[in-house]
Fold each of these.
Amino acid sequence: MAIVPPPEALGELAAVVEPLQVAAPDLRWAGRESWHLTLAFLGEVDEGLLAELSTRLERAAGRHPQQRLSITGAGAFPSAGKARVVWAGIKADGRALAALAASVAAGARRAGAPPPDEGRKYHPHLTLARCRQPADVRSLTNELALASGPAWTADAIHLIRSHLTTSSPRYEQVGSWPLRPEAGQ
């Protein structure tokens, strides 16, 4: 389950990331088309659960307002000194976004597709690159930390299927559900 930033926000991030890709070719960089804000990672989901999952996700989306977000800052998991993942940060109403992520995860669990990362503190981000071995990426995260993109309104959540390949994952949008418009919209 994810939120997909608009092309303008992705374009501004790409302008910052592209020179870094050249400077760090040993990382496995995610393509711009795969950048998304994960709300809940579901792992393998049986096709037979998709109808119930769709119903639950539609309910979850309808309970939460649209989110005002922007891409800003950067970091690495588990740390910039021993990174496995390099990410761009998300500026948001942290409580509202965490509540949406928790609701999506609860809906998935009720549908029979429990998120394997449930119970971890939610940390909104866009994965930019993966390291084959733990790496010191402090210089990259320092440069990425200066990035600050335009704010946008996330108005829907998306169920995204990952197709794992030897080079990098390919993502397919399976379904979308609108978030509740703010009063007066």
Amino acid sequence: MGSVEVGSLHYKRVLIKLSGEALIGSQSFAMDSALMSDIAEEIKEIHQLGVEIAIVVGGGNIVRGVTASEFGFDRATGDYMGMLATVINSLALQGVLENKGIYTRVLSAIRMAEVAEPFIRRRALRHLEKKRVVILAAGTGNPYFSTDTAAALRAMEIKAEVILKGTKVDGVYDSDPKKNKEAQLLEHVTHLQVLERGLKVMDTTAISLCMDNKLPIVVFNLSHKGSIKAAALGEKVGSVIGA
């Protein structure tokens, strides 16, 4: 791909939502170091083009709140465990990015001053203006809200132009591609269609929030090299949820 002029960038500010489960890659648990390095390299490329980047990372590769509740914990406790898992992933991603020379800040919705800054909207905006990559950890800081909803909320707060959602599948399908081999990839679908058809791409709270605020979502396979960069540059990749 040739060089891109900053003035021709499709998006000036993006929020990247990374599925925790997608970070497992070829590993059986935790995270795939090679995949994390590839992700960081793509983030570095679009950052160098002038794109302002915020990232929300899930925690499903370590613990999921809903799964934790199956062990007898109450749902709130399980969700807090999941939020702490996202902090682990955020610190790992910060380390990989900084090894590549990208100034990065982790802002946590749960205060833990020794490892991360507290999430303060104006502070996050200031970091973005200073061209730092901002990783937004610990979800919304509240149980019963997924990291997808956190991504939608934070995208509104920082005035991102799009959510780029990296997952384990190639985009939005009309049915579960793991269960139905005939499932069709939908290249473009509206927020309302996602809700009406019960398409399992993000939870309904996140989709509704994006619909109400006219925020598009690009869904793509995180394991495909170049997909983050292509999505950030507005190229055809995965599925687009929008008007």
Amino acid sequence: MTPIAVTIAGSDSGGGAGIQADLKTFSALGVYGASVITALTAQNTKGVTAIHDVPPDFITAQIDAVFSDLDVRAVKIGMLSQPAVIEAVAAGLERWMARNVVLDPVMVATSGDKLLAPDAVDALRRELLRRATVVTPNLPEAAALLATEVAVSETEMQVQAERLLALGARAVLIKGGHGTGAVSADFLFDGATVTRLAVPRIATRNTHGTGCTLSSAIAAGLAKGQNLADAVRDAKAYVTAAIAAADRLAIGKGHGPVHHFHALWG
């Protein structure tokens, strides 16, 4: 059977993040990608200039169209900007008994533009954390979910991950890309084990879409039948290579995208 994953996320008109990054990642990793669009953004490498939210009933229609026909083996969830949208997605996951759900709590674009309404944070925490196989916040997103300060040490990252587990998440991958120092370390917590994934920090401004790419790469691994630890480890290797190859591309005048097809393009 062909492995299939669906991305439930916003569209990035510049092509570097959102569903565009997710579908590129699925394809690069040998997974067929479907999509449910939750928002349209007018966006490029310099920033977001407008957001148009998709009505919740149309999001529901997209979810039902995909799941009623395709054998979806994994779900990646990205930008959900409004409480009603979050509730529609949560209901769809429940209705179709979705498996292997990777929740990327997208709140702010690489450019600094906010993508999540303040009143939607509670809905995200309440409706989706418990439905996710793994949640993948970066440091600011983890702090926002917990209404606390951004972690500044690996010890604080572990404490925040444990608090997210206590809120209902089955596993947490807390990402250290927003940290400082020569090493970028992510931590995977599942309530029983802790896995540290550390790589040298790569000096580049072309990091647009890294969070989307990592979460969709995890979903791709799960769709292919990997366990969570292996899917996360392979996804980390893939996104690290995509960042390292980002400067081979010349896209836009701001924060360019990572190179999703670094292993395929000459």
Amino acid sequence: MNRSGRVRPHLPWFILIGAVVLLPVIIPSKYVIGVMFLVGIYGVLAISLGILIGHAGLFSLAQPTWFGVGAYVAGVLAVREITPPWIGIIMGALFVALISYSMGAPLLRLRGHYLACATFGLLIIGEIAFTQLSDITGGNTGLLDIPPLSINGFVFRNVFHYYFLSWALCIGSLWFYSNLIHSRVGRAIRSSHDSETASKSMGINVPRYRLQLFVLTSFVTGLAGGVFCFYLRFAAPSIFSFALLVELILMIIIGGIGSLWGYLLGSLVIIWLGELINVYLGKVLPVMTGEVEAVFFGVLIIFVLIFMPRGLSGWVEQLFRLGKRTYEQVRRNPA
């Protein structure tokens, strides 16, 4: 294999890392970098949920709950000065993994919409717990006075610091999941999604692999929750509610189910469309409500499902194929 053949599979990674590094240099706007921080964090959530739904066929809707638990545990440990902030993030993610393991063992025996309903119940329970445990979480007022994140003396003081942290977590998650789905475990999970009976007949321990994936995605989501908590320096139940789940599902559908890169693309599109709607449509409408944004995204989903059933990632892939064929034809038949 020549050098270009070895480089080509890694080209998207080089482009992504280069874009993340150069963006603050090209556009040193705190607003833009703040929005891109959200793209990175929500990208982690979308990829984690997407790999469950699109690759494993597990319709788990508890991702906002894991996100919230990770945030609250990290925030409470920091506010009460029990652990340093960075250890609090890890402790929060481990606590999320422990809960998801204990809950996943019985829940993953369910399939399809039964699993979706059960995990949706977890989402509702999480919302209620975040509100009612006011002595710990601050209730509806929220968890206040969260100190800034610090790691070995380095304090994350501005949005640029958190931007690089969120994208390090996002790219790391994307790389980890990409390797996972192409590993022996990933092939077993994908085969069980296609036919669970056939997978079991081949000796694959489907429940074990599904539980492992369920716990891994919840752990990564808990890490994202801890980072998000220190970025806002605030946590409230409304942040980790059903509205977040709707946003994540939008990212997965619009990005393209079954594509890890598509989930990240969906996060980029949905976050920026939300910002554009609030900024520009708010100038047209005297009262910009959440219902207007919901209608807009509802129409967008219908459009994507009808005209781009594979999502934006499928559309981008078709464009690349078309460009490749055009390039090859030009090379064979030069003018």
